[in-house]
Amino acid sequence: MAVLAAAQLLDELMGRHRNTNPNEKIKKPNWEDPEYCKYYMVKFCPHDLFVNTRADLGVCPKVHDDEVKELFEKAEPSYKKTQYVDEYLRFCRHMINDVERKIQKGKQRLELMNSKPEGPPMTQAQTEKNQEQVQLLSEKIGALVQEAEEAGTRGDVEQAQGLMKLCDRLKEEKEQLLKQQENSHWSMTAELAAAQEKQMEVCPVCGAFLIVGDAQQRIDDHLSGKQHVGYFKLRQAYEEMNESREKQQQEKERKRREEREKERVSRGGGLGSDRRDRERVERDRERERDRSERGDRDKERDKDRDSHRHRSSRDDKGGRHEDRDRERERDKDREKDRERDNKDRERDRERDRKHRKDRRSSHDRSRRRSRDRH
């Protein structure tokens, strides 16, 4: 670390090419070279924010060059440039998440310190009595366990089960006594801490502990400290870059929609195509209704035929002649429906051909106009 810091200091004083020979040709700087710091080119390097603080990230191993930063800013938007920005935002988000976890832990710690105990602390005599009872219960539990094991070896299962139930009740009583003793100890510790320490709060920016109602000089020192200023600068840069990126994406999406609408209009789309689509859908619906009506008529004729077939008078010649006449009429109706469907399909094909021809002619006219303008 010390060597890197000294090298950076020499680079600032004498330049990065201080060790090159006078006759050696110096390479022109390029912002895509891996030796340059991506974070410094995008905005600023987070390694420079927390020097000599608890959040110190150490010396940045990459080169910070203002000339390369200007080249990066002047460069046209590209995929690699977007990658640099994305990597910078991910690093900032990682650091902000770390300090947010630190703030959350600090708040939980303060809530635990400020929480009230369940009951008043126990006196010395009560504590000694509690310890004696716990010791006595432990001895009883051990004796009961031994008796239950002996009863089990003798084969007296009922006695062993009864002894184990009594042992479980004594264990619960012992746990309650231990819990009272622990609560009393925590109550005394909390009272001592409240008496010795002042009321604290957590800084919402850097996660440091602050004294509520402290002197203004100490508050100003904290607000101007490296750690607080560094996290504030990091949060501000992250929010600004996120907002600008969202605006750019919205602008791109708006331009893309406008281009699609223009292309659609130039190709003969727009309101005319919507109207033609609606007409086609309406024709399809009418055709479907005609088919359903024909199906209903056919069902009615089939029912009539079945009913006539079951009659006794169907055996004479007159009845058979009527059936043949009805069958001929039904065939004629089907033929007419088929011809109507064919005519509708032919009419739709003709309209589609005419629409494609009009669209090609409009496209050719637009191409001629653009060629004439050029």
Describe the structure.
By secondary structure, the chain is mostly helical. Helices cover 75% and strands 2% of the residues. Strand 1 (200-202) and strand 2 form a beta hairpin. Helix 4 packs across helix 8 (226-266) and helix 9 runs antiparallel to helix 10. It is flat. Residues 312-317 have low confidence and may be disordered.
Q: What's the topology here?
A:
Blueprint: H1 2-14, H2 38-42, H3 66-74, H4 79-114, H5 124-154, H6 157-196, E1 200-202, E2 209-211, H7 216-223, H8 226-266, H9 271-309, H10 317-373
Helix pairs in contact: 4-8, 5-6, 9-10
- The domain tally reads 3
CA(first)-CA(last) distance: 63 Å
Query: Globular, elongated, flat, extended or rod-shaped: what is the shape?
Result: flat
Low-confidence stretches: 312-317
Helical run tally: 10
Largest sheet: 2 strands, antiparallel
Helical coverage, percent range: over 70%
Strand order of the largest sheet: 1-2
Question: What is the overall pLDDT average?
Answer: 76
Radius of gyration: 45 Å
| Number of E-type strands | 2
β-strand amount:
under 5%
Query: Structural class, please?
Result: mainly alpha
SSE string: HHHHHHEEHHHH
Q: What would you say about this model in short?
A:
The chain is mostly helical and 374 residues long.
